[in-house]
Write a structure and sequence with these properties.
There is one protein chain. By secondary structure, this protein is of the alpha+beta class. The chain contains 17 helices and 40 strands. Helix 4 packs antiparallel against helix 5. The longest helix is centred in the last third of the chain and has 26 residues. The radius of gyration is 28 Å and the shape is globular. 45% of the residues are buried.
């Protein structure tokens, strides 16, 4: 076995590999850029080697710098994680030439599966079900229209070397096929330096389901069931689960066997993933093969009990697989939510800064539940603008899908993150969405269910009553604490009233509290009551409250009139008044937000790449004003209406914070 492995990556995946290597008794080497000198993966590894400035193209994806780190540290093998150099055949070739083991597949397999046209031809030859389409070179728009008619509309026009949604168009008729062909060709040339285009059938009611495969260098190959990855935004996976709530055993077996056949056809070794599009009738079609470890691999580990990183290392060491297909079972259900440093209230724009609070739910392994959090950050650490915005993968397991979802709801509510924008509220909303709960979702789920973006969660009436009851009981505790501190009377509880009015989500909920040593009975003026028990004390940021036997987890910030409470995706300003205070509060005029209609505000912390206008320019609706870069994304800010630029406060190269004024209009 290897004595020392270098991890050519960063963040949570580097930490994940280090954990398994440590379990196997293997020393680890981390590499890091200037931005990552205090990163968690650097602290966890046995050694760390500096490889350059923050931009990845000057550090993490420079093959020569990684090779230098290998030579200087004496690492015998390299695990590439995912992204960066993980699917770079030249890197695999450089390692082979240096006599260093690559914890991944052979370079030939990487090359074969890295090109969409080549991979589809290989898949067809291996009898893998593929989407009907035309894989040859398409000369012009006329030929594209002819081919589209032969396949049958709708069709997908795609760049062969594409990725991330670039060079991709859907056409429903001849005119759209003609226009889409030229647009895809132009985008492909500009983005990839390769303008080859292919056309295939566009699958309706599509679900994204992938098969995990594992192969060794001795001719053995198995599949470890499937993962459902249909909850996506801009081709970026957000929620994954295993198994899929849609597949039956026969479809699973067929997809798995075809995936292994494809892997063997390209001489694949190590862990890999074969991705499929599955339609509403369970017809499945090969999409692509990812020749690396997937981000969402933990859900497969949780339902099979197989440590995929360990298996990758053992295969790279020349060992045969120790498990057969018959050993692979499906035990329970696992769900993964990706925690991103992005603001869902600002159209999911990246958010950077210091994590002033980072308290994940406590990880545990029990007979009836598991909570796992793969992360690469810590409280007080910085979220950098240079890398991917994913900061953690929260996973839960339970014997059933329903129980795994409930475990995830509680875990999300228990996850405390402050200092940056994050998508925890959105993830909670998805976990409570009827379509997700039923398992009836497609890759269009987010686009269809949140067409105008995410603007928060409005709690149902029953849930709001529970929050109101909890808030009233907690407010009573804070009032008793104040009475003790002020020394108003010996019997402090008598100075605190029992009748309160809770104002939340635009509603007034009148309650009466009858407290005892075991908790409180909260009665509602409109009828009914609930029993509230909790060990929460003022100053605690997380409250676990039992309401009639149901656990409610609340993130709590105390303010002068009550609390800011966050739960199940809702962010509530909860005011708790005495009846007289409620009467007076109702007479107060509503404070209106400031008018920013004549200002262009920076929507996220980032770097101004360029400014497209000058003072005095008349701009039209939709016109590009400037470009802001953050976390590998360029965001073009456009005019919302016709106006004249009167002042520009930023120039290319400036770093801005959220809501900094970039320019002003009249």
């Amino acid at each position: 076995m290897f004595n020392k492995i270098l991890i050519a990556n960063r963040g949570e995946i580097a930490c994940r590999v280090i954990k398994t290597a440590r379990k196997m008794g293997i020393k680890t080497v981390a590499v890091y850029s200037d931005a990552d000198k205090n990163a968690l993966h650097v602290k966890m590894a046995d050694e760390a080697y500096h490889i350059g400035p923050p931009p990845a193209n000057q550090s993490y994806i420079v093959i020569d710098k990684i090779m230098e780190a290998i030579r200087e540290t004496g690492a015998e093998a390299v695990h590439p994680g995912y992204g960066f150099l993980s699917e770079n055949s030249k890197f695999a070739e450089a390692l082979e030439a240096a006599g260093v083991a690559f914890v991944g597949p052979p370079k030939g397999a990487i090359e074969a599966m890295g090109d969409k046209i080549t991979s589809k031809k290989i898949a067809q030859e291996a009898d893998v079900s593929t989407v009907p389409g035309y894989m040859g070179l398409i000369e012009d728009a006329d030929e594209a229209v002819k081919i589209s008619n032969e396949i049958g509309y709708p069709v997908m026009i795609k760049a062969s070397a594409g990725g991330g949604g670039k060079g991709m168009r859907i056409a429903w008729n001849d005119e759209e096929a003609r226009e889409g062909f030229q647009s895809s060709k132009n985008e492909a040339a500009n983005s990839f330096g390769d303008d080859r285009i292919f056309i295939e059938k566009f699958v309706t009611q599509p679900r994204h389901i992938e098969i995990q495969v594992l192969c060794d260098a001795h001719g053995n190959g198995i599949y470890l069931n499937e993962r459902e990855c249909s909850i996506q935004r801009r081709n970026q996976k957000v929620v994954e689960e295993a198994p899929s709530p849609f597949l039956d055993e026969a479809t699973r077996k067929a997809m798995g066997e075809q995936s292994v056949a494809l892997a063997k056809a390209v001489g694949y070794t190590s862990a890999g993933t074969v991705e499929f599009i599955v339609d509403g009738d369970k017809n499945f079609y090969f999409l692509e093969m990812n020749t690396r470890l997937q981000v969402e691999h933990p859900v497969t580990e949780l339902i099979t009990g197989v440590d995929l990183v360990e298996q990758m290392i053992r295969v790279a060491n020349g060992e045969p697989l120790s498990i057969t297909q018959d050993d692979v079972k499906i035990n329970g259900w696992a769900i993964e939510n990706r925690l991103y440093a992005e603001d869902p209230y600002r159209n999911f724009l990246p958010s950077i800064g210091r994590l002033t609070r980072y308290r994940p739910p406590e990880e545990h392994v029990r007979d009836d539940s598991i909570v796992r959090n793969d992360t690469g950050v810590y409280e007080g650490g910085e979220i950098s603008m240079y890398y991917d915005p994913m900061i953690a993968k929260l996973c839960t397991w339970a014997p059933t899908r329903e129980a795994a979802i409930e475990e995830m709801r509680v875990a999300l509510d228990s996850f405390e993150v402050e200092g940056i924008g994050h998508n925890l509220p959105f993830l909670s909303a998805v976990m409570d969405h009827p379509k997700f709960i039923s398992g009836d979702m497609t890759t269009a789920f987010i686009a269809e269910e949140y067409p105008d973006g995410f603007d928060g969660v409005t709690l149902p009436a029953d849930d709001l009553r529970k929050v109101a009851a909890a808030a009233a009981a907690m407010f009573r505790v804070t009032e008793i604490r104040r009475a003790r501190v002020s020394g108003r009377m010996d019997n402090h509880e008598r100075t605190v009233g029992s009748d309160w009015v809770v104002v939340a989500q635009g509603e007034q909920i009148a309650v009466s509290i009858d407290a005892d040593h075991g908790g409180a009975t909260v009665s509602f003026a409109e009828g009914g009551s609930v029993r509230v028990t909790s060990d929460w004390t003022p100053g605690q940021s997380l409250a676990k409250v039992d309401i009639d036997g149901t656990e409610l987890v609340l993130k709590v910030d105390v303010n002068s009139t009550g609390f800011r409470i966050r739960t199940r995706g809702a962010d509530l300003n909860v005011k708790v008044y005495s009846p007289r205070q409620a009467e007076l509060a109702a007479l107060m005029p509503e404070k209106l937000p400031p008018d920013t209609s004549k200002l262009l505000l920076c929507p996220m912390p980032g770097l101004i790449v360029k400014v497209d206008v000058e003072v005095g320019d008349e701009v039209q609706e939709g016109q590009a004003l400037c470009t802001v870069e953050a976390m590998k994304m360029e965001n073009i800010l456009r005019a919302e209406k016709k106006a004249v630029v009167t002042k520009i406060n930023a120039a290319a190269g400036d770093s801005l914070a959220v809501d900094d004024v970039i320019m002003e209009f009249e």
